[in-house]
Amino acid sequence: MIAVQDLTKDFREEDTITQALRGASFEIKKGEFVAIMGPSGSGKSTLLHILSFLDRPTSGSYAFSGKRIDELSDAELARVRNEEMGFVFQSFNLLSRSTVYENIEIPLLYSRTIPPGNRRQLIENAVSSVGLTEKLHTEVGRLSGGQKQRVAIARALVNNPSVLFADEPTGNLDSKSGAQVMEILQRLNREGHTVILVTHETYTAEFANRLIKLKDGLVESDERIKNQRQSKEAFFK
Predict the structure, then answer these.
(1) Residues 39-97: pLDDT tens digits?
(2) What CATH number is associated with residue 162?
(3) Could you say which DSSP state residue 70 is in?
């Protein structure tokens, strides 16, 4: 599904050039749950932005579902991002005065392939998948942090994307809510969704089944996680 080769990203500020990525290479297959870790400044956020079409690399190649992104226009990238990618952010990025239903509906408003008549069923399916059916018409501002992140996951899923990107999804949550969110992502992966997680927390990364570690813009290691966390009981041990 994803193949990157010798990926670099430079940021220029006046006469100073900062190399955020210095030649990252790896592949991610459909159905994997991959965690990307690294210290501050390692390049993990930059990498996520490139993988999710929010930025372009300085050099190197990136192919998504067999399509090289350097051959796609900005409009084509935006279409693929809307139709084939879902996003979960640390800060939720929800409209607090809108209902759960209205927040989850947002990606559908921009879809060219989903008829308006199908929206309600898709929204109800998505909110059911994160266990918040009873909150469907509640204003988001009235929800707890953990519930807000579950709404964000439902919004990311409503288009049935090929891949789900999660950027520090437990960063603003207490440990119990964080475990619940990670269990949802793990279950979605078992149901067939490809999940790519960026985190600085080891216990969060252990819900994935593969760990890519970055250091100074390079892939330091890429390995399978042998003792994958399976439940919140394991989480609290």
Answers:
(1) 988 999 999 999 999 999 999 999 999 999 999 999 999 989 988 999 998 899 999 99
(2) 3.40.50.300
(3) G
